[in-house]
Each structure stands twice: as C-alpha cells, then as structure tokens.
Amino acid sequence: MIVVLKYREADSQLSSDADLEDFDGRNAKTEKAMVGKKMGGDKSKGGGAGRVPGVGWVNGHHKENGTETMTLFEMVKMGKSATQAVVDDWIEAYKHDKESALLGLINFFIQCSGCKGICAVSGEMFRHMQNSDIIRKMTEEFDEDSGDYPLTLSGPQWKKFRINFCDFIAVLVRQCQYSIIYDEYMMDTVISLLTGLSDSQVRAFRHTSTLAAMKLMTALVNVALNLSINMDNTQRQYEAERNKVIAKRANDRLELLLQKRKELQENQDEIENMMNAIFKAVFVHRYRDAIAEIRAICIEEIGVWMKLYSDAFLNDSYLKYVGWTMHDKQGEVRLKCLTALQGLFYNRELGSRLELFTSRFKDRIVSMTLDKEYDVAVQAIKLLTLQYGSVLTAEDCESVYHLVYSAHRPIAVSAGEFLFKKLFSHRGPNEEGLPRRGRQSLNGSLIKTTIFFFLESELHEHGAYLVDSLWDCASELLKDWETMISLLLDEPMPGEEALNDRQETALVEIMLCAIRQACECHPPVGRGTGKRVLTAKEKKMQLDDRTRITEIFAIALPLLLAKYCVDIDKVTNLLQIPKFFDLDIYTTGRLEKHLDALLRQIWEVVYKHTENEVLEACSTTYHYLCNEEFTIFNRVDIARSQLLDELLDKFNRLLEDFLQEVTVAESHTSELLLGTFSDLLLGLIYPSSFSFPQIVIHAMQCTHYIILWHLAKVSDGSSVKGDTVTLRKQMKAFCLMCQHFISSINTAVKEQAFTILCDLLLIFSHQIISSGREQLECLIYSPDSSLQAELLNFILDLVFIDQDDDDNSTGLEDEASKIEALHKRRNLLAAYCKLIVYNVVEINTGADIFKQYTKYYNDYGDIIKETMSKTRQIDKIQYAKTLILSLQKLFNEMLSEFGFTLDRSSSAFCGIKELARRFSLTFGLDQLKTREAVAMLHKDGIEFAFKVHSPQGDGGPPLNLPFLDILCEFSSKLIRQDKKTVHMYLERFMTFQMALQREDCWLPLISYRNSLQGGGDDDTMSVISGISSRGSTVRSKKSKPTSASKRRLPEGECELLSTRPRLQSVSTPLMMHSPHLTSTVLRDPKKMRQEQSCTTAFIMPTEQHQQQPLHQQQAAIDYKYKKNSFVLLLMRYLNAHVY
C-alpha cells in the first residue's frame, strides 16, 4: 500500500468569497446534507428488484449474457462506441440494478483519475463504508510515483479521452434529466463522491473530480435553462387559458397547467439545490486551487454558465470570481478569464449588463494589454475592442493604439483592429452618399485619418508596421491606390484643406508599404518568423494585386516623379515601386509611352540629386527594368547606356577642370585620362586630400569597388593573363594609400580609409585561397607591424572615447545623432575585431581591446565578448596570454597614475579585479579543456608580479606584487593537481624572508598562496569525464598529510622547482625541459587506475607558444637552468615547517 505524500496545497492569492449569494434565496437542501450522505444509499432504492438475468454492471465491468466486457473507462477511452449508446446502456443497467450500475459509475471516475488494478471501489465497500472512508482508502492506495494520469498524458488518444470524458457527463445528465436525476439517489451519490475527491490531497483526484464536477454543473445549467423555458411557456399558457371567458375556459386544462407548473417548479428547485451544492462545495474552493489547470477549468466553466443562463449567473455574485482571477499569476488562468468575458461581450444584450463590472475591472483589462504572455495580451485587446464604446477613456485607447507597432504580430493585428473600429468604423451623416473612389470619397477621409495617426503617434517611424497591423481588417482601404494618387496629384476642392509636405511624405511611405504588403504577402522584417507558404487563393489575389498595381502606377508614377522630383524622401520611396511591377503589362497593355516617360523622369532624378539613397534607388530600378526576359529590355538598356555615356563625358570634363585648378602637371593629367579608371581614381585621391575630402571619400569607395570587381573576375577564371599581377599592384598601392589617410586630419576621411582597409585586409588574407582557390595565393596581403599598430591606435583614439569627448558632438546634438555616432563607432570596432578573429592581425593586439570590456560594456560589450569567444576557439593558450597581457597593461597604467603607493581598495584596482573576474568566467566550466591555457595565464602573471624590484630596496615587496591579488580571480579555474604545480612555480620566485612576511603590503602574496593551497582534496572539478564521485571520495579518504620532514620531491616536479632565483635578485628565471609531470610519478603508469590517469598534473606551458603563428604546430622549447639541490631541498624543508 502506497501512502500519499501529505501536503497542503497553498491557497491562491485571490480574495475571499464570503459575499457569495444564494439562488434567489431558495436552498431546500444544504450543501452539507448532500455531501455528508452515504454513497450506498437505501437498500430499498438500490435493491435488485426487476433485475434482468445476464445484463448488468459488476464492479464497474459491463456484463452481457454472463460475459464480462469493457469497463466504462475503457469504453470512453477507446471511443469506439458512440457516447449516446454507452450512456443508454448504463441507464438501462441502472433501471434494472441501481447499486451495480452506480458502482460502475463511481469506479469510472476513480479510474479516470489514474487508479489501476486493485485500487477500485468494491461492492462491499460501497454498501458498508462512508464516503470519507472510501476516499481515504483510495488515497492511500493511489500510486503517485509516476505523477501522470489520463488528463495530463500527452498524445492524440488522451486528448480524445478528455473530450469523450466531458461528453459522457453531458450526455449522461441530458439523458437522465426527466426522471433519474430527481430520484435523490444517483445525483446525490455522484455529487457527494466528486465533492470528496475534489478536496483530496492527491492532485489526480482533485483535477479529475473538479473537471467532472464543473462539466456536471454545466449540464445541470442546461437542464435548469430548459426548465425555466418550460415554466415560462406553461405560465403563458395558463394566463391565456385563464383570460378566456368562463364559457370557453377549460378548468381541467387549468388544473393540468397548474400541476405541471408546480412539478416544473419543484424540479427547478431540485436542480438549483444541486447546482448550489456543487458551486459551494467545489467551485468556491477549487477556483483558487494551487494548480493552475484546475483554476482554469473553474473559470472557463463559470463563463459558460453566465452565457447560458444569464438570468441566474450573470450578476456580481459570480462575476467577482472572474474579476479576482484576472490577477492570477499564471497566464493560462488569466487567458480563461478574458475568453469568458469575450463570450459575454459578444452579446450586446449581455454586455449592457456588465457596466458595473467593467467600471471596476476596466483598468486591469487595459493593463493586461501589456501582459508578459502574448496570448493574454492579444485576448485583452480583443476584449477591449468589444467594449470600446462603453467606458474607455482617451488615455485607455492611446495605450492600445501604440501596440500597432509591436514586434509580435498577433498583438499588432489585434491593436490594428481596435484602431480601425475606433477611428474608421463610425460614419457621420455628411459622409453618406460619397463616391466610392477618389479624393472626395469616404476612403479619402479615412486615408487622411491614417496619415494623421501615423504622424501623431511619434512612437515609431516605420509605416510598414502600421500597414501590416491594419492589413487584415483594412486591406480594402490600403489597396485604394487610386484615392492615394488623387490625394497626391489632384488639386484640393474649394474649402478642402490640402495635405502639407510632411503629410504627403507620410502618404507616399504608406502607399509604398501597402504595395509591398500586397505583392510580398508577408510581414515586415522583425515581425514574423519568415515567409509562409501561400494558399491558392492567396496566390491568385497576389497576382491580381500585382497586375492592378502595374496598370495604375505605370501611368501615375511618371507624374508623381515629375511633381516630387526634387524631394529626396518622396523620390526614394517612389523609385522603389517599379520593382513590384509585372513588366509584361508594359507590352500587353500598350504602355510603352509611359515606360519612356518613366525612364526620362529617372534621368532627371539622376541629374538633380547627389544623395546616395536616391542614386541607389535609381540604380536598383534600372537593374530591375533591364531584365532580358522581358521585351522592354532593349528600350531600357539603350536609355541606361545613354545615361552612363553622358555621365562619363561630364565626369571627364569636370575632372579636367578640377585637375587644372589643383595645378596638376599636364603630362600627369593626360596619363590619368588615358589610363584605366582605377588608375585615374588612384591619381585623383592625392591632389584633393586636403581641400576636397568628399571627393577623396567617393574616390576611395569607387576604387574599393573596382578592386572587388577585378577580384571577382580573376576568381571566376574569366580574366586574361597579367590581370592578377595588375590587381596585386593596384591593391597594394590602394592599401598604402588608405594607410596614409588613416592619419588624415579629416575624421570622415580617416573613418572611410580605416573601414576600406579592414575590408581589404580581410578579403586578401590567407582566407582567399580557401575553397580550392590556390591560384590566388599571390594576392595574399598581410599587414606588417607598423600597419597593425596604426590600426590599433586608430581604434583606441576614435572608438574608446566618452560621449562628451567625441569631436563630432556638440552641445545642441540631439539623442538621435548620439546614437548614430555610437553606431558608427561600433562598426569601426567590429571591423577591427574581425581582423583579430580571422587571424589577420596578431591575437595579442586584442589586449588593448579586451581591457576596455568593463569600462565600455554598455557600448561595445557584445562585440568584445564575441571577439573573446572566437579568439578562445582559435587558440586557448594565446587567448589566455592576451587576457593576462590586457590586465598587465591596466595595472601598469594604474601604477603610472597613482605611483608606488598603491591602494588596493581604490576604484581603479577594484575595476581591474572585476575585469579579471569576468575574464575567468569566459573559460567555462570544463576545466580540463582550458587546463593548459589557465596554467599559462598563472605562469605569466607570476612572472609579471616578480618582474620589477622593490622601489624600497632589499626586503621590500616587488613593485608588481599587488598583481597577485588580481591573479587570484583565476585560481578557481585550476584543477587540484595544477594548483600544486603553480604553487611550486610560485615558490621559485619567493625568498625565505618573503615567506615569513605578514605586513599588509604582502597580503596579495598571502592571498594568492592561500587560493592555490585552499580546497585541497575537497576541491572538485566541474566537468571531468571518467572520474566518479565514489572514486574521488575513496582517494580523499586514503590521502594523508605527508610529514614535512619526510616530504620527498618527485622527480617530475623538478621542472617547476629546479631553478631558483637568487635571494638578492627577483628576475624571472628560465625553465628547463623535463619529462611529463604526473601526480603518480612514483607509481608505474601501467598500474594506475583509469580514473587516476585522467587527473595528471599539468606541465607548465612553454614560452615559445606566443611567438608561433596560429596555424602552425606549436613547438616546445628547452629551458636552460642551473640546479642547486642543496638550496632547493633546504627551502622545501623550511617552507614545510613554517606552514
């Protein structure tokens, strides 16, 4: 027998239900009287009189012709028989043997709770045990080990079971509503059972019985509703018969109607007593159950009751439970509250009776539009959409309006529907009879309203999000492109207010977004998971919209470009419209003259504008129109070629005039004009570097693109002999030129040169020969040390600056320009970090970047962190050396600022320690993978700490000794064996006097030694494969402290301890090359256990690693040393006795 876990479910946070009201004051039977009944009832009611041989239910098993078949639970679970048939069979069995059939129904509920095997109610228990005793026995025998029961099991079968379970209860009550439910036996027993189970400590009993009780209540509500309708009909018939004249009045019929009304009233009272008992005994306690699923069931069903039987349930006595539960901690329960209320507000008659509830809980519903659960927020907006005309204030509406710009599309669409119904669904009397299309149409007014909202809601600047939010409910409005064109081109009517320039710009943007939405049929970037597969209907609509767009804008677009030719924003948006055209329509619709007009307007735009965005839009339009698959290709290609020829002629004329102005030699000018275009640009940069920085920027960009085009041509193999040599010369010359301009006076020129140079160094690095392109090996260009230094200095000077120190910032600079400047600096830093990640520059150059991690964490933290992560993947040891180098740089900077009197409690020192702590976290949890890297880090840190003599002379601490306090942050990343090894290496730098010092200035050394010695055998590694906890425990028990006088030096440790700095000198000694050092050096390696072989101590890495390129094999170096065995053993002996 399994004893259930004795626990008490914590009460919910909801308020008390003390003010629950009764049904019209009628309560013939109290809840306690019904719940306290014995389940077996009277033998006179449960006897076997009239029993048909061979048909019945025994212990819940259906018997037919003496053969035992499936139980009710199995029949409902399998779902092979119709629920109606199963219920009819049970009712037939109940009529013949009430006790046996009812026992089967009881076991049905017990089995639905997850009870198996012997855990069932027997006939003996049913006849002789009280309700509470039976439930107690079921609780004790219930197996809670698995925690699963039918309502929580996954899979299609169990989902269907839940539906069948609820249907069974509903059909059972419906089939019994005329007689059986009033026999004071079946319903009393079932309600008593479910009430007792709903108060069980076993979750399965509580969950299943609550669902059954709530569905039973719903079924009884339907019965009560039918009784109420019949009573009303009977009352009307009685009144009609009584109002007849005496001669025509049928007294017998009046008596029958009175008797029928009396019976209906008694049945109504009986049903209401049952509902009241279930409500008070189950709902009132379970709506605040500790399990969210149970609370959700209660709230879902009470919403059904209020909708079905509003006369009895739609009042504040029941609505308060929904209002209270809207504050539930679980989104599932809050969602059920909102869906329950939506069912009420959909019916305007019911919604009008919710004014008091709405006024009280309106603020809560409005706040739920910002719920952390997206589904809850969506339903809250939909609920407000249903009741927007009641009590919502302007502030409430505005809090919903801005959600049309939400990144979560369902929320945005719901907010768009709210906005549409609030602003666009009301038509005034003067708007009736307006034309369907055009400036004076109703859509014209609505489009203006959309423009005003877009401009006034200064929360977002992207019209694509607004259009996408309104698309589902207002697509007809947004597709009225004729009206939009009319608003832009037609003159306003007398008395009509014309759109200003800002409003026209907004209208053009909205129009473009609507065209894109219609042609692409997917949400804008950032809203949605990607393109979805369109249905056949959607594809047809997409093609129809594209055809209509082409037919309309092929004619209107040249006119719009002609009107707004000088407006940058409008022209940029208008030039994006042709890429959504169906270009075949130009031919099939005989619209060639409109195509010529469009090409002429694009020509005009190119000649009138110098802005990049406008010229890029023109280039994109030409690229789309020049498609060889369409018949208009020749026409567009000729226009494009003529434009390029004229631009080149104009460029040559202007270039000649410019070179004469800057006094360039005539021979050199002719050479430039006769040379290639790239040579011309290279020659153009130098003369204009000081007086015309904008020309330099554009010239560098053009040269950069030309080099990339030449590289693509060479890579494809379509180049002629000698092109590779020419490309290499041009690339090197251009890189030298960019290096020269990095030190330019003009900031824009410097930034452009730096960006282009980083791109070229990355493109022409050793990566260029990957993917089988060995023929490009001659194009590899590696930066020398001077260029690497210049690039690093550029980053330090222009990126790692405070906002107030930015040369581009002014006192009047707004927030947007500051963000733009930060974005530009982030791009510069990212460009340099890519050089580190791809091994174009030395990894140790990243030390000056990594040391800024904490100081500029908010601005560049993500970039630096990702760079460190990639660097660690390339070479862990070199990464560790770079980290310690960055800490050493910061430490030296601090010494130069504060001098020799260093305060370890200062903010500067604490900042370095915090940076070291963050660096240590980057090594992760697997200490074996980073073992060598962390050991190398400690080695370099120890050498740095003892590198400089004490400024106080002999006997004083080394100048860099406080650095050991910073190094302590990495001690936790050492495994136990390596801690001992590093500690031995530390002792090589210590003198006898150092070991005896206890002054404050020696605390870093003491703390560092303690961090290496602390933990001992109790030190555990986070991830070590092959080492069991049991084996570790055995070893720790067997290990005993070795006597200091008898402690022996293993030969493998000689590498760490062999060399010894002289007592008068603290210079870094050289290390010798030695055999592998292991923690079991005195034992035969073959006899070691497997778990011990995984935990050998680490050999301190060699120094040469940082000098080797990353892609080459690392080679060990022999360290020369002089060994003094006597001094070594003496110091070991003294140290052991001192400590």
TrEMBL record:
Identify the Pfam families for this entry: HEAT_SCC3-SA, SCD, STAG
The GO cellular component terms are:
chromatin; chromosome, centromeric region; cohesin complex; nucleus
Query: Biological process GO terms, please?
Result: cell division; chromosome segregation; sister chromatid cohesion
Instruction: List, in alphabetical order, the Gene Ontology terms for molecular function in this entry.
Output: chromatin binding
> Where is the protein found, in the record's own terms?
Nucleus; Chromosome; Chromosome, Centromere
Which keywords fit this entry according to its UniProt record? Answer: Cell cycle, Cell division, Chromosome, Chromosome partition, Coiled coil, Nucleus
**What segments bear the compositional bias annotation Basic and acidic residues?**
31-45
What family does the entry list? Belongs to the SCC3 family.
Q: Per its record, how is this protein called by name?
A: Cohesin subunit SA
What is the organism lineage in this UniProt record?
Answer: Eukaryota, Metazoa, Chordata, Craniata, Vertebrata
